[in-house]
Design goal:
Helix content is about 35%, strand content about 15%. It has about 325 residues and is α/β, with parallel strands linked by helices. The chain folds into 2 domains: about 120 residues, Rossmann fold, CATH 3.40.50; about 180 residues, Thiamin diphosphate (ThDP)-binding fold, Pyr/PP domains (Rossmann fold, 3-Layer(aba) Sandwich), CATH 3.40.50.970.
């Protein structure tokens, strides 16, 4: 049925009022989403001299594309993430012999996030001058908040792996991704939500040891559980840190559905050996004890899950109150 609907979906896309086509100059831009905002910021007042097709829905409106192709001598594609539009247009534009520039041509990076400066460089726009007031200022990379429980978790982890020649630590999407920065340098990869456990599992299959991963409680509930299930099924030789800060901190402290006792129930429910599931309290007073637990589980040949549990400092006091959890009948708070 969806296949039969495609022609009507294409027609609807062609007449969609949210799509915007402006034919002015010989240089044109095909863009979508936040890429349009980057373009406007990059060229400023000169944007009125550019031909622009802003695509707001799919399938791609082919007739609108043909109009801007026929009008322009050179086209740029600006889109965040995967070069979906650019890939779909390559065949069509090739028939017209028109230059198409974007991520596939190397004019924009295929990895990382776009920015107005990257777009300006591709379009040949001059870089904005650096104000004298900020010249020479030291860089200020983002950091974990003061008092963040993740900081104490990373301190314990870093001390525990001292002496290991090549510890590999896979990260995930969340506040804790900032563990990539000094002084921790405890995140060696960040791909997408839930990838940390699967990547650690794959690395262990290739002989990487210790293979460690860090994932937040809410990200674990989003896409991490299935990877832990696969790891538990074969007792993968990895150490998983599920950082339980009792909230979805990075996006505004929304409720997390996999924290506290429910998180432990899920971990045990997918088949992780209770003897190798530990809840630790990431505080300076417990640092030595936490390091010893981590070292013991790193030495274990098999799957271990360590849950550093302390609420984010930004959640309401009632949600920061200690919650008792149980692992294999033993109560932990």
């Amino acid at each position: 049925r969806l296949v039969r609907m495609q022609p009507s979906l294409v027609r609807d896309s062609e007449i969609c009022e949210q799509n915007m086509l402006r034919l002015v100059g010989a240089r044109g831009v095909i863009t979508s989403g936040i890429g349009y905002n980057y373009f406007r910021e990059a060229v400023g007042a000169e944007s009125e001299g550019w031909s622009v097709l802003k695509i707001t829905r799919y399938p791609i409106p082919v007739s609108l594309v043909r109009q801007i192709v026929d009008h322009c001598d050179e086209l740029f594609v600006i889109e965040e993430g995967y070069p979906y539009i650019e890939r779909h247009l390559s065949g069509l534009l090739g028939l017209h012999g028109i230059a198409l520039r974007g991520k596939q041509t190397g004019d924009l990076p295929q990895t990382g996030e776009l920015s107005p400066d990257l777009v300006a460089a591709m379009l040949g726009m001059p870089a904005p001058p650096i104000p004298d007031s900020i010249k020479g200022l030291a860089g200020r990379p983002p950091q974990l908040c003061k008092g963040c429980p993740h900081a104490d978790s990373f301190r314990a982890l870093i001390e525990a792996v001292q002496g290991d020649e090549h510890p590999v630590m896979f990260g995930d999407i969340g506040c804790y991704t900032l563990g990539v920065m000094p002084p921790f340098r405890a995140v060696h990869s960040c791909v997408d939500m839930g990838s940390s456990i699967a990547m650690a599992h794959g690395a262990s299959k290739m002989g990487v040891r210790p293979s460690i991963c860090t994932i937040g409680d809410s990200t674990f509930g989003h896409t991490g559980m299935n990877a832990l299930l696969s790891a538990a099924a074969v007792d993968a030789d990895i150490t998983v840190f599920v950082l339980d800060n009792a909230t979805t901190a990075m996006t505004g402290t929304q409720d997390s559905h996999t924290c506290g006792q429910r998180l432990i129930d899920v971990i045990l429910g997918v088949g992780v050996d209770p003897a190798h599931v530990h809840v630790i309290d990431p505080k300076p007073q417990k640092h030595k004890e936490n390091v010893e637990i981590i070292r013991r589980e790193l030495a274990h040949r098999g799957l271990s899950v360590i849950v550093p549990r302390r609420a984010c400092i930004h959640v309401k006091p009632a949600r920061r109150a200690p919650v008792e959890v149980a692992v294999n009948g033993a109560s932990l708070s």
